[in-house]
Amino acid sequence: MQGIDYLKYDNCHHDGSKPIEKWCSCLLCFDLQPYYMLIYCFNFSCRYPVMSKALKKAGRPIFFSLCEWGEMHPAEWGFHVGNSWRTTRDITDTWESMISRADQNELYAQYARPGGWNDPDMLEIGNGGMTKDEYIVHFSLWAISKAPLLLGCDIRNMTQETIEIISNKEVITVNQDSYGIQARKARMHGDEEVKPMQQPLLLNHMIT
C-alpha cells in the first residue's frame, strides 16, 4: 500500500457473496454496533470488512470508498467499515441524471459525518454533456452535500472553464467545513428547491 491514499472497492465481478451479511448476532457485530439491533454482520468473512481490516494494518491513513451502488443502504452501516459509500447507481453526464443522484443522496443526509460521507458518484464537470451553469449547480450541490469531490473527466484536457468551476475556493470551503453537516431540502415550490444553510455554518461564518 505504499504511496496509496485512496481505495475504491467496487462490487463488480464478485462471486455472488455480499459485501456484508444481514441479520447476524456474532460477538464482533455486537462490539461494532450494539445500538443498531445487530442488523448487519461485520464478521471478517465478509468482503468489505476484510479490506477494512487490511487497510488499518497498512501503516498509513487510506481513504476507503465503498461502492455497491446503494443497493444494501450502505449509509446505515458504512461508517463502521469505510470512509464513504455510494448511495446511488452510476451517474451520467446529463442534467437529469445529476439531479436524480442528488435527490437520492439527500435521503441519507442524516448519516453523513466527519470521517464518513454519502457519495452520489463522481463529478461530471468537464465531460461536455451539460452547460456551464449546469456544471456550476452540479459542483455546488456536491459541495453542500459534503460529497467527495472526485473528478470524472480527463484532467489532461480540462478547459479553463472547467478549472474555474472546480477550483472555486468558497464552494470548496463549504464542502470541507469541520462540521460535516450535509444540506437538506427546506422546501419545494414547483420546479424550485430551497436547501437550508445549517446553523453551525452560519455561526462559523462559512456561508454568507
From TrEMBL:
Keywords: Disulfide bond, Glycosidase, Hydrolase. GO terms for biological process: carbohydrate metabolic process. It is an enzyme of class 3 (hydrolase). One of its GO terms (cellular component) is plant-type cell wall. InterPro entries: Aldolase_TIM, GH, Glyco_hydro_27. Its EC number is 3.2.1.22. It comes from the Eukaryota. CDD domains: GH27 (cd14792). One of its GO terms (molecular function) is alpha-galactosidase activity. It catalyses: Hydrolysis of terminal, non-reducing alpha-D-galactose residues in alpha-D-galactosides, including galactose oligosaccharides, galactomannans and galactolipids. It holds the Pfam family Melibiase_2. The keyword DNA repair does not apply. Belongs to the glycosyl hydrolase 27 family. This is Alpha-galactosidase. The lineage of its organism: Eukaryota, Viridiplantae, Streptophyta, Embryophyta, Tracheophyta.
